[in-house]
Design brief:
CATH superfamily of the largest domain: Copper binding periplasmic protein CusF
Number of domains: 2
CATH architecture of the largest domain: Beta Barrel
Strand order of the largest sheet: 2-3-4-7-6
Length: 203
């Protein structure tokens, strides 16, 4: 089998085998304030007052601002580097912590919104890597054996549709995380059937 259609090897994909269960800059002017969390976060979390879940984009230490991405829109938030708390990173070094967050990583911020609609954050939490128990993980050799065998299974590619269209593992169906709840009918009705999820890496 040739799994290299996407320009990446099968070994580069994170694979987890689970039983079926519902559920994972320099900026001088801020755009209009938004309050809705990024769609993929709303699958597991309910919006909370004073908190925002989004994808980290970049930071400007000069203007003390962070640009976050909410699906296709952007949100700029302000911070005070002398009081900002960064959870899940280097303690007591705000600049190093903020510069160390990878673009596109999921974060949660605690904020207050001013009269001008600009959010000022007091805390930013970096989402830790997802931990899949060893007994629920599947390695490349096991997946290849599954694809060649007679075991009944459903293989779900959880990457964005554009990545799936570029190429995927044979027999996989595409259910991106933000669309999970709307596609439950695509999952096997038999709770005992093997359900295998994979994406571009552990996040």
């Amino acid at each position: 089998m040739d799994f290299r259609k996407t320009g990446e090897t099968l070994a580069g994909l994170a694979v987890a085998a689970l039983m079926v269960a519902p559920a994972v800059l320099a900026v001088d002017q801020a755009p209009p304030a938004r309050t809705k969390d990024v769609t993929s976060c709303s699958v597991c979390h309910k919006p909370e007052a004073g908190q925002l879940r989004a994808f980290y984009d970049n930071v400007s230490m000069k203007s003390q601002s962070i640009q976050l991405r909410l699906d296709s829109a952007a949100e700029v938030v302000r911070f005070d580097k002398t009081t900002l708390r960064v959870n899940g990173s280097t303690p007591d070094n705000v600049e190093k912590s903020l510069r160390g967050i990878k673009k596109g990583h999921e974060v949660r911020v605690a904020y207050v919104e001013g009269a001008d609609g600009v959010k000022s954050i007091s805390e930013i939490s970096i989402k830790p890597p997802m931990k899949v128990p060893a007994e629920k993980q599947m390695n490349v050799a096991e997946l290849e054996k599954l694809l060649k065998g007679n075991t009944k299974y459903t293989l779900v590619d959880a990457r964005p549709p554009i990545k799936f269209q570029e190429g995927s593992i044979p027999t996989a169906i595409n259910i991106p995380l933000p669309a999970f709840q709307k596609n439950l009918d695509k999952l096997p009705r038999d709770k005992g059937e093997l359900l295998v999820y994979f994406c571009a890496g552990v996040t």
